[in-house]
Amino acid sequence: MNTRTDIPSSSSSPPPTHPWTYEVFLSFRGEDTRINFTDFLYTSLRQKGIVTFRDDEELERGKPIAPKLLKAIEESRFVIVIFSKNYANSTWCLDELVKAVECMNMMGQTILPVFYHVDPSDVRKQKAHFEEAFSKHEEAFKDDTKRVQNWRDALTEVANLSGWHLQDE
Predict the structure, then answer these.
(1) In terms of Cα–Cα distance, which of 17, 42, 18, 14 is closest to 28?
(2) CB under 8 Å, gap of 24 or more: what pairs does 39-43 form?
(3) What is the separation of C-alpha 51 from the centre of its chain, rounded to a whole number of angstroms?
(4) Which helix (H) or strand (E) holds 135?
(5) Would you name the residues annotated as active-site residues?
(6) Torsion of CA 64, 116, 156, 133, to 10 degrees
(7) What average pLDDT does the chain have?
(8) What domains are there in the chain, each with its CATH number?
(9) What does the pLDDT read at residue 60?
(10) What is the sign of the dihedral through the CA atoms of 95, 100, 106 and 112?
C-alpha cells in the first residue's frame, strides 16, 4: 500500500497541484553509502509507507544521466541528498544535484541535505575531497566549463540549506 501524504483524503477536495509519483528521491554515491546509511534510510522510509525512489542499477561511467533518473527527480516531492566524501567524484551525482536544484527553484520540491562524514563547509566551498574532485572535473571538462560551474553552484546552494551533519564518532 502506497501512502501519499500530499494527497487529501477527502474525495471532495481539489486534486493536488503536483501529482508526485514519489515522496522521496535519494541522491547518493553508491560506493560510499549504499550498503550502510542509504540502505538503512531507504528501508526505514519504506517501512513508514513513504514512497521512495532509489536507483539500484549500476551506472555506466562516462554516460549521460539516465532520463529515468531525471524524471524521478521531477516526480519527487522531496530530494534527500547524502553528501559523502566521494559524492563530487560522480558526474551522475552532480547532474542529479543540478536537476534537483532546478526542480526546487521551478516546481517547489524540497531538498534535504545530509552531510555524511563530511563538513558542510567543505561541500559549500568545495574544499578537501570536493576540491580534489573538482580539480579532476575541471581538467576532464575543460571544454564544458558551464557544466562544472553549474555543479559548483548547485553544491553551494544545497550546502547552504539546513540539513543533518552526521560525523564520525
Answers:
(1) 42
(2) 41/80, 41/82
(3) 16
(4) helix 129-140
(5) 96
(6) -50
(7) 86
(8) 22-55+65-166 (3.40.50.10140)
(9) 54
(10) negative
Q: List the one residue out of 75, 30, 36 whose CA is nearest residue 57.
A: 30
Across the range 88-112, mean pLDDT stands at 95
CA dihedral 71, 74, 76, 81 (to 10 degrees): 90
**Average pLDDT, integer, range 5-33:** 68
* Dihedral angle over CA of 9, 14, 19, 21, nearest 10: 10
Looking at the chain, the whole-number percentage of residues with pLDDT higher than 70 is 82
Q: HEC profile for 25-75? A: EEEECHHHHHHHHHHHHHHHHHHCCECEECCCCCCCCCCCCCHHHHHHHHC
Which grid coordinates belong to 132? 580534489
Query: What does the block give as the cell for 160?
Result: 547552504
Tally of residues, the chain: 169
What is the distance between the alpha carbons of residues 30 and 90, in angstroms, rounded to a whole number?
10
Which cell is 31 given?
Answer: 560506493
Give dist(CA 42, CA 24) in Å, integer: 9
